[in-house]
Amino acid sequence: MAHRTPTSDAVPRQLFPSTAAQRTALARRRFFEEGIRPSGLVGEAVIQSWMRCSRLHRDQTRAVPFDPVTPSRRQSVLQRNRTLIEAAGPDLFSMEGTLAGTDCRVILTDRDGVVLHATHHPTAAQQPVLRATSRVGVNIAEGLVGTTAPGIVAQTGKACTVDGAEHYFDALQGMQCAAAPIRDVQGRLAGVLDLTAEQRRFGFDAAAMVGLYATTIENRLMQAQSREQLVLRFQAHPTLLGTPLEALAGVSSDGRVAWLNDAAARLLGGLPGDDEARAVERLLGHDLAGLLRMGRSDTALALRLPSGLGVWLQAALPSGNGTDFRHAVIASRSHTAVADDVPARAPPDAAAPGPSAATSQAPSPSPSPSATAETLRAHDRRLIEDTLAAQGGNISQAARQLGVSRGTLYRQLRRGSEARNPTPGG
After folding, report:
1. What sign does the CA torsion over 208, 191, 174, 160 have?
2. Do residue 93 and residue 203 come from a single domain?
3. What is the mean pLDDT of each run of 10 residues along the chain (426 residues)?
4. Which of 188, 223, 258 is the last residue of a domain?
């Protein structure tokens, strides 16, 4: 469809429409009948969607097809998105409970627009479109069903609402929908959460509600994808921890920040692209060993960021974590010269907050300090020797693997050699 810039001759003089419905009607007439881009009458996201759809579907008056769903296709899409579905489950249940007194339906799609979950309303009246679309496996992508809120979000990655005649096809003009993106730890679109009503108004701020729940699902998904990372929760006020407003970060065993959620990115100024700049010491002002020690506390602890901003932080390794964080213990002892400052084995029980950590530290009975120090030193020597053997004796690679400098590793090796071969009379 050709579009031209409106002129005083092309657009008749008239009063500016006073309602949203009138503005949308005028926008449709200008776009579909006159070929004029209706800037200012509907949102830019809707205009862009109309332009994409006009290249695929010439006739906006035709019936909208909804693909049939075979059992194998349904099973395939569920299996492919199992992590997202499991992460979203608690919040979908909560959201549907909140909306139980309405006819609104909650729809979750994958990144391609295929429905993964939809509210079941068997008694809802006058919902012919929702009865057709609210089925797992149905593809409601923009390329198939035209302009909708979940279709635009899948295309742009940005939250939006589409109301009534803003839908591309005439058959969908009785719909009102609001959708928001859900991203994974890589920052890629993982799915879309949508709230849709048919033949009625929402009567509340649907965009705010769907955005809130999408954020909660996104936070849960990121943590589910970080089973081998130290997860940090922090915010400027401790009461915000555990809410959709909490900042989250995943720290890998090499001491690098692997991901940030949106709240964390705002507090830290974003995630740098350079690996060295992602070092947790540079982003949060504390090394990995120090954060592991903070993980022993079952309450949030105060922390000062390099920017000078004060936050409250909790650190925890997910249950069942099998990643080796012991190199951080060696680095901590080398810098602080306190042999028993961090336990020799960090995760999962020593680093995770809770009563079990406190119980495990209780003396019952405890060995002598000299015996404990000797045991820890022996553990460090074994870990260094095993790492060197795995790296073929390469000091640089072993130091990198352990997260320490080559000088620190040389000192540890020299101490180990002296302990095994003491000087006469020593």
Report:
1. positive
2. yes
3. 47 65 93 93 96 92 83 90 96 94 92 93 76 89 95 96 95 95 96 94 94 97 92 95 95 92 95 89 90 87 93 81 54 43 37 37 44 55 73 74 69 67 51
4. 223
For residues 242 and 314, membership in a common domain is answered with: yes
Tell the burial category of 203 from Cβ atoms under 10 Å away from its Cβ (0-12, 13-18, 19+): exposed
- 216: part of which helix (H) or strand (E)? helix 206-224
Decide: 222 and 248 in contact? Cβ < 8 Å.
yes
* Sign of the four-CA dihedral 396, 402, 407, 411: negative
Same domain, 98 and 128: yes
Largest CA distance in the chain: 106
Q: Which helix (H) or strand (E) holds 249?
A: strand 247-251
Q: What phi and psi values does residue 106 have, to the nearest 5 degrees?
A: -95, 125
Residues 109 and 216 in one domain: yes
SS3 label, residue 327 = helix
247 SS3 class: strand
Give the integer Cα–Cα distance in Å for 193 and 314.
28
The per-residue DSSP string of 128-184 comes to HHHHHH-STT-B--HHHH-S-HHHHHHHHSS-EEEEGGGSSSGGGTTEEEEEEEEE-
Tell me, yes or no, whether 11 lies in a domain. Answer: no
Three-state secondary-structure class, residue 357: helix
Place of tokens 């921890």: 241
What's this model's pTM, rounded to 2 decimal places?
0.73
